[in-house]
Design a protein that fits this description.
The chain is α+β, with helices and mostly antiparallel strands. The chain has 2 domains: 77 residues, no CATH class; 56 residues. Helices cover 41% and strands 20% of the residues. It has a two-stranded antiparallel sheet. A two-stranded antiparallel ribbon has the order 3-4. β1 and β2 form a beta hairpin. The protein is globular.
């Protein structure tokens, strides 16, 4: 049985972004009951990375508040067979900040930039690498990143508690 037959109905592929030897980057939807449970939980959401492979199975990253994650875990445990493993890790330190809405293309560009290491120190890719990946001009990638960064940082700045810088003597 092919992988296509195994996931039929559980994964709807909207677009193949890139294909390589043994991998593909997809824009896909999971219309099944797991996705429906997550969508109904206001205090939990899917974040990258999420992937499906023969070796590792299905890996989904879900973030949320402690209460939202507990409710979701309880619901998922009734749905997921015992032979499948579900692992919850410790929540990231920090305050919950609501996620701003980004235009689809900007969201895809900035998520891919994060995944490819653009925001790591030292950088693992540059804007030209991202442009080549998407088949866009470097200036277009720069514009998408700048607009997305602006929206994200302004949203963050409006939500974090204000603090006045201390005077230096």
């Amino acid at each position: 049985m092919s992988i296509k037959d195994e996931i039929k109905g559980g994964l709807i592929i909207d677009q193949i972004l890139q294909e390589g030897d043994g991998f593909a980057y997809l824009k896909a939807r999971t219309p099944g009951p797991i996705q429906q449970l997550i969508a109904k939980e206001d205090e939990a959401w899917i974040m990258p990375p999420t992937y499906l492979s023969r070796e590792d199975g299905f890996f989904m990253t879900i973030h949320g508040t402690s209460d939202g994650m507990k409710r979701l875990k309880d619901k998922l445990e009734t749905l997921i067979p015992e032979k499948m493993k579900m692992k919850l890790s410790t929540p990231l330190a920090g305050n919950l900040v609501s996620i701003p809405i980004l235009h689809d293309k900007r969201s895809l560009v900035i998520k891919t930039a994060v995944e490819m290491g653009y925001y790591e120190t030292p950088k693992k890719c540059n804007q030209t690498d991202l442009a080549d990946f998407f088949g866009l001009k470097q200036a277009t990638v720069a514009e998408h990143l700048q607009h997305a960064e602006n929206i994200i940082l302004n949203s963050w700045a409006k939500q974090v508690p204000s603090s006045k810088p201390s005077k230096r003597n």
